Amino acid sequence: MITKTVKDVHEACRGVQDGMTIMFGGFGLCGIPENAIAELDRLNIQNLTCISNNAGVDDFGLGLLLRKKQIKKMIASYVGENAEFERQMLAEEMEVELVPQGTLAQRCQAAQSGIPAFFTPAGYGTEVAEGKETRKFGDKHYVLEEAFKADFSFVKAWKGDTAGNLIFKGTARNFNPVMCGAAKITVAEVEELVPAGELDPNQIHIPGIFVQRIFQGEKFEKRIEQLTVRKK
Amino acid sequence: MALTKEQIAQRIAKEVKDGYYVNLGIGIPTLVANYVRDDIEVDFQSENGILGMGPFPYEGQEDADLINAGKQTITSLPGASFFDSAMSFSMIRGQHVDLTILGAMEVAQNGDIANWKIPGKMVKGMGGAMDLVSSAENIIVAMMHTNRAGQSKLLKECSLPLTGVKCVKKIVTDLCVLEIVDGKFKLLERAPGVSVDDIKAATEGDLIIEGDIPEMKI
Question: Shortest CB distance from B134 goes to which of A124, A173, A176?
Fold first, then answer.
């Protein structure tokens, strides 16, 4: 079995450089690679192009990189939770490409699968389609969208093994599986890392072939963005 | 009396049929789940990756790994499933979801919808809305009839950047229920105590008004 284990987040982030394009799994703060984000914050990597569904909140998730202006360009579908983000965007201090959520997921999956581009109905007739090829299939119009090209992909899973196999939990799965193998190097941080052979092969969501480096995160804060409860 | 947001949700809940898979947007649409009849089988899909979404958890039972697309903590019901974002949008674009209910800033009489951007002022992003409206056969918009400045949100043409073109089928506002027919807003029902003239005054787009317009039953 090919071993993908690295000792810690520091080793996991080796090779990340200024100006790179990086994917981050997660939806809101759910299932984000918090250890890797903290490391990129510590390393103060600059001029990043980040691909992530959201941009964190002001003091957590990608918000940590935003407040130090480490992000040159953000590619996301929804950024409404972050005041500093909105400020930098409206002041044109940061470049922003807003992408429909399904298109974002599919552009990751296309990169993972070796598909250079695909047609989607999302965004036809809107500013998202401006400058892009469109085509009619049947009686419906579609927009040509391209696969992402990224240097690193940072994902977070619940459990993983030393072979890089991953299992996700609940809605923390979200963009993580489609970002695995969608960049030159995929780094997975997991809550629990076990020896190869301990996970049931039937239960694995992402086979280790899509993962180059895996480590057990030192800690996971798993912050809740909107705590909503009902009374007993 | 104009409807409250809860009442708008209550009226829309009557559009939810037995056997439907339903995607609810953020805001008023989220409330619809509270009013669906309990003698029918309905599954709620949230595009962040759950089918079979349940109510909010009891205090202390919340799980950071279990949220809806509005980032709120939720629960899963028996028979629920989790999946990744690409599969989630396969359900949506592949038209496996039967009904989409979402909010809007503007709707035009040809069915165009705008709900993601006010240039120079507010840009939150489209999230999954563009994928949803470009694919769903059955789209209901839940919104207030006018904006905070009192201007109509039901227009001849949208003034804001579009989310989708010619896609909205039905609109439920605090004043009435409308359907898009032949490029116009056809008035179907009035909120209790709201007159046709009230609705005319609050609607910039062209209305089709045929015969007596019944009051809606909530």
Answer: A124
- Which residue from B49, B92, B128 is facing A173, i.e. has the nearest CB? B49
The reply to whether A46 falls in a domain is: yes
Q: Which residues of B are catalytic?
A: 47
Name the token pair of B215.
């009051």
ipTM of the complex: 0.96
Please give the residue of chain A at the shortest CA–CA distance from B67: A171
Q: Does the pTM exceed 0.95?
A: yes
pLDDT, one tens digit per residue, over B43-92 is: 999 999 999 999 999 999 999 999 999 999 999 999 999 999 999 999 99
The residue segments making up the domain with residue A37 are 18-118+149-216
pLDDT tens per residue across span A121-131: 999 999 999 99
Number of structural domains, chain A? 1
Domains of chain B with bracketed CATH: 5-169 (3.40.1080.10)
Report d(CA A154, CA A13) in Å as an integer. 9
